[in-house]
Amino acid sequence: MSEELQDEVEAINSIFGAGSLVQAGEESDIYVLSLPEETVSLRLQFPPDYPAVPPSVLSTNSSGGRRGLGARDLELFRGALGNIYQPGFVCLFDAIEELKRLQEEAGLNREPSLEPKGTETDKEVAARQNGSTCSSHASGLGPEPPWVESDPFVELKSTFVARCAAVTSPDQADQYVQHLLASKKRIRDATHNITAWRIRGPNGTSFQDCDDDGETAAGGRLLHLLQLMDLWDTMVIVTRWYGGQKLGPRRFALINSAARDAFVKAGLVDDSAGSKKKHSAK
């Protein structure tokens, strides 16, 4: 397995959940891709010189879905690969996203997407463009939030740092984000500040939201991580400083790794296996 493919397998399983992309057998160049929110899985063959040469989509397996879904997704994914692949660049994450787009065009999506649209709110634009104003009002945003900070994760000069905190309401989560941006110029000036939170409300209600801050799909992936770990009353913000070299799908694995490290340091998950330790932050 090439280093690029190894990184891509790790990234896909980090983004979409363990077992999303698995080797079909020992020392095999064939992998099984379980498509997100689908009953269909695809068998892909990666040549030894991938990504210089594209993968091949061999076949599909459908379980529990409507008749014909497998053949439909097989053709759509082949089309997605054809649209996305560029020699020398890993392509699987982008191909999955392109598949979603093609499904939407064909009116075939069966589940609403959790992914944000990648646009900033007016308030976020104002916070980004008026740094001095934000700083001058930091004292009016309340006390310093009880952040637990991850170790920095650095790759190709890009740096990722996560912070998590206990929250009890959507307003509090928003206040914590605004406090961080207003009081920390280096964070405010970062390339991306990706956030996600899940909160249990009264009478069985619940709230969850995310913001990718221009890093398309990252907020949704971060929220998915909270869901997989069954973490509640918790928010996380991952800050990225871009180092000038593109990381491809590897960046999503680094975002999730930084978030997990913050959860571990906060005592929300076990360090050894990354398994859940508690349901909510304290």
TrEMBL record:
CDD domains listed in its UniProt record: RWD_ScYIH1-like (cd23822)
Entry keyword Ribonucleoprotein: yes
Keywords: Cytoplasm, Repressor, Ribonucleoprotein, Ribosomal protein, Stress response, Translation regulation
Spans traversing the lipid bilayer: none
GO biological process, alphabetically ordered: GCN2-mediated signaling; regulation of translational initiation
RWD domain residues: 7-106
Gene3D superfamilies: Impact, N-terminal domain, Ubiquitin Conjugating Enzyme
Subcellular location: Cytoplasm
Keyword Cytoplasm: yes
Main localization category: cytoplasm
GO CC field: cytoplasm; ribosome
Domain of life where this protein originates: Eukaryota
Pfam family, one: RWD
Family: Belongs to the IMPACT family.
Protein name: Ribosomal protein S5 domain 2-type protein
